Amino acid sequence: MVGASRRHLTERYASGVDLLLWETEKRLIPDLDAIRSVTEAAASERAEGLDMGAALVLVQAARLGLDRMECELFEAARAMGMPLEAIAAVLELPDAAAAEERQRWLEGRRALPYTTAASQRPEAGKAARRAEAAHRAKAAGDEPAGRPEAGHAAGGDPGEQRP
Q1: Pick from 94, 133, 141, 142: CA 20 to 30 A from residue 34's CA?
Q2: What is the pTM of this model?
Q3: What DSSP state is assigned to residue 30?
Q4: Judging by beta carbons within 10 Å of its beta carbon (0-12, 13-18, 19+), is residue 27 exposed, middle or buried?
Q5: How buried is residue 81: exposed, middle or buried, by Cβ count under 10 Å (0-12/13-18/19+)?
Q6: Which of 18, 36, 32 is nearest to 62 (CA)?
Q7: Which of 68, 71, 97, 70 is nearest to 84 (CA)?
Q8: DSSP 8-state class, residue 146
Q9: Is residue 104 helix, strand or coil?
Q10: Contacts by 38-46 with C-beta closer than 8 Å and gap 24+?
Q11: What does DSSP assign to residue 1?
């Protein structure tokens, strides 16, 4: 559901460089940008129900991602010897027991299925990008299909080129 939400909101709200990256590499817009776009569209009464639902799914995914990071930080702090009392103070929790309870709760959250945006990006190696660039150039009549683009000849990554 998270992947479908990311794709839907990218198709609806990508613009500028994000739109170019979606059209050429199927690169999704960042979750927070997608959520912000829906919030802005809702404020001007342009958002649809599906947009709202997709944005809410991404809010939940972002929250889960933050909880997973917090759990990692808890573990790292404990591994370096930081006492639960200190962690509780930093998090403005009443005491060490509350910090320990929070850590247990976060560990439960970490066990939930989680999909990062990066894991949903189609794998596009350099050869695939070269082939796509050559195809676009041939279709546009700019260059012969076998000739690499300037970014390739210079060793650059064509995915990083901007119009």
Answers
A1: 133
A2: 0.67
A3: P
A4: buried
A5: exposed
A6: 32
A7: 97
A8: T
A9: helix
A10: 38/9, 38/13, 41/13
A11: -
Residue type, 91: L
Q: Which two tokens stand for residue 84?
A: 């639960």
List CB contacts of 84: < 8 A, sequence separation 6 or more: 78, 96, 97, 99, 100
Q: Quick one: tokens of 42?
A: 């809702």
Q: Cα 24–139–122 angle (5° rounding)?
A: 20
Closest by Cα among 40, 35, 27 to 9: 35
Supply 19's token pair. Answer: 């739109």
Q: Which residue has the tokens 């299909």?
A: 145
Parse the chain into domains and list their residue ranges. 2-120, 126-160
Using alpha carbons only, what angle is made at residue 81 by residues 78 and 86, rounded to the nearest 5 degrees? 75
Per-residue pLDDT band for 145 (boundaries 50, 70, 90) equals very low
Q: Specify the residue for token string 């991602």.
A: 65
